[in-house]
Amino acid sequence: MQRNKTEPSNTVPTPHGKLVTDEYQEDETLKLLPVPKENDINSQREELVKEQVSIDPLSEPTRTPNRSKFSVTSDSLDIIKVDVPRLLLSPLFTSQSIQDDIVQILYNYDHSYTSYRQGYHELCGLIYLVLHEDSDDETSSLISRSDFNKEVFTTMINFIGPIVSQFYIEDSILGWSVSIFNRNLLLVDYPLYELLLKYHHIETQIWVIRWVRLILLRELGLQNSTRFVDFMWSYDSDITKLMSYIIIILLIRIKLSLVECEDSGEVLYLLLHYPYIEYSDSDICQMIEFAIQMDQCHGDEKKLKEVGVQCNKWFHKGFKWEKVKDLGKLRLELKLKRRVRGVLGGSK
């Protein structure tokens, strides 16, 4: 996961070549808090109860930061400990010691930055796995377990931060769906935009939330997803915009299948159950190249449309999408062709 040569000046490399902004770079002074033992938590809860009882119930309600934070973190820790053993991304996570690592990283993330939400454990696991696979035996021998966990933690803060703020808050995901994704889809592939939003009246946020919250993990599978994560982390651009372009590219890939759907129910099912395929390295490189080209258009309508045409040609060789004006009419034609093929096949 190497960044390109256009890194901003306020970044410094970590042991694996990742970059962490100055805001979170604390060199040797950064230490992850240990996960509290159950006895410690119970003791703190008892003290909390005593404090609450001693407060006059008729007085103005007060909330001390420490008490509020303990309450949130202790409850979150219970959920984290339930979620982490369910992490099925790799056999690596069946190891109790690695599960303990993930719990500690998520506990610190919850304690220091934002309250834990279900799904964070898969994001953390994905980062842990990518960094683990990036490290060779020689590198692994030079970095301690605690240092590796700190690297996962800082990477999670920098990489996942924008994803959490944009995709895990209801108002934010709605705004992103309308102002960023829908606009980009309209400019890159207007017929596809018209099919989904005008013809079938499917609101983007209904299905896209599943795609973006886990960085396409469920749609692409682990191997494909890690390669796209590698790209999004190393390419110096707004990850939320890159995500919109990558999703549009993936939609163009299944465009014919979307057109062939009989009704909005079938379309929505296809969007929520994206057909899996293991992409080759050349496929991934080409799709990433399309995403970079879209990003470098900087919103230019003509240029985005041109990239969209090239993307359609690459996925659907020989099919001239740019000449298709009515996807509803095309759907009927495709349906008729299927029936004809079925009749001819049955008569043999």
TrEMBL record:
Gene3D superfamilies named among the record's database cross-references: putative rabgap domain of human tbc1 domain family member 14 like domains, Ypt/Rab-GAP domain of gyp1p, domain 3
SUPFAM superfamilies: Ypt/Rab-GAP domain of gyp1p
MF (Gene Ontology): GTPase activator activity
SMART domains to which the protein is assigned, alphabetical: TBC
Rab-GAP TBC domain: residues covered: 63-236
Biological process, per Gene Ontology: intracellular protein transport
Listed InterPro entries: Rab-GAP-TBC_dom, Rab-GAP_TBC_sf
One Pfam assignment: RabGAP-TBC
Disordered: annotated segments: 1-22
Protein name: Rab-GAP TBC domain-containing protein
